[in-house]
Every structure is written in structure tokens, then in C-alpha cells.
Amino acid sequence: MTQSPSPLDTRPKHLKGPRLSLALFRIGWSERQAAEKCDMHRTQLRRCLEGTSALPSDLSGWLLDLEAAHLAHPCPRQRRADPILAEIRKAG
């Protein structure tokens, strides 16, 4: 019996570049906040954001879990008609 992959199996193992930027945006963290929360030097995180390096799998999984939680539980006062947010929702 072949099972279809779970959503966790299809997630990137190592976040980097635009996908990492999107996750941090959705969580609401700046580069500095993310570096502090991940206990990383800002230069190391910046390299991941530029795509020349990637986050370790444990941090990648944790950030993806945080992103999913933020998407599943948006602020009840979030603006629904914001065109920028509409584009982000389409892309995500």
C-alpha cells in the first residue's frame, strides 16, 4: 500500500532565500529578531536569506511550524482588503 506524502514530508528540509524570507514575514520577525530567536549571528542568517547558505533542518522545521501556526490563527483584526496581503496569500 502506497501512502501519499504528508504535508510535513513535502516541506523543505533546509530553508533559504525567498522561502525563508516569506516565513519570517509571515511570522512577523525582522532579520535581527530572527537571528536572536534562532541564536545565530546576523551574518549567518543573512547568508541564508541571500540563498548562499541554508538553515539547519531543526531550525527550518521550527520556523515552518511557527509560520503554519501564524497562518492558522491570524489576528482577528487583520485587514482583509489589503492588496499586499492578498498577493501574499495567493503566492503562499
From TrEMBL:
Name used for this protein in its record: Uncharacterized protein
Organism of derivation: Gluconobacter albidus
